[in-house]
Design a protein that fits this description.
This protein is mainly α. The protein is built from eight helices and no strands. It starts with a helix and ends with a helix. Keywords: Membrane, Protein transport, Transmembrane, Transmembrane helix, Transport.
């Protein structure tokens, strides 16, 4: 009995050693951890690094943030809620594509509101002030002004002036 147990434990040890040698070879994903570290802040923990990178770490007391009283879970729920509403509105607007010539105003209003909700969802992850600083950085300022200008102009021409031609051009820009 003891001889068979020793043989089984020896076989098990050999099997484990062979598997370690097989699995120690570098694979496709072996460098992921090293590559991530160069892009993340150095807090010592990958979860904390990701939270710092995306503005989720310890912002409960940050007075410069629009969501300063929301914890991480509430921010993520807000993000997914606004993103879901935005995607729903974008999908609803796609139903008007076949009759775009007849219902361009309805399409543009629903599409623009879907864009606004989707874009606003990011403020829950970043916080309002960090996201505003990100959008107004010198490399993104022109894009931000053009995007928001086209959003507001599209809504203005769709709701107030009800101009089909201007609305179509602004939708294309948006």
């Amino acid at each position: 009995m003891s001889v068979s147990v020793n043989l089984e434990s020896d076989e098990l040890s050999e099997y484990l050693i062979e598997n370690r040698e097989k699995n120690s070879k570098p694979g496709i994903f072996s460098n992921i951890n090293l590559n991530l570290k160069q892009y993340l802040p150095k807090t010592g923990n990958i979860e904390n690094d990701l939270a710092v990178r995306f503005g989720l770490a310890g912002n409960e007391n940050n007075s410069g943030s629009w969501c300063f009283k929301l914890n991480r879970k509430e921010r993520i729920v807000g993000f997914f809620t606004f993103l879901s509403i935005g995607v729903l509105l974008l999908m609803l607007s796609s139903l008007y594509i076949p009759v775009l010539l007849l219902k361009a105003r309805k399409f543009s209003i629903i599409f623009t509101m879907g864009s606004v909700f989707s874009f606003t969802s990011l403020t829950f992850l970043w916080g309002a002030m960090p996201f505003f600083r990100h959008l107004t950085s010198p490399t993104r300022l022109i894009f931000t002004l053009m995007y928001f200008g086209s959003l507001f102009a599209t809504l203005f021409f769709a709701i107030s002036l009800q101009s089909y031609i201007c609305n179509s051009v602004l939708l294309w820009i948006e």
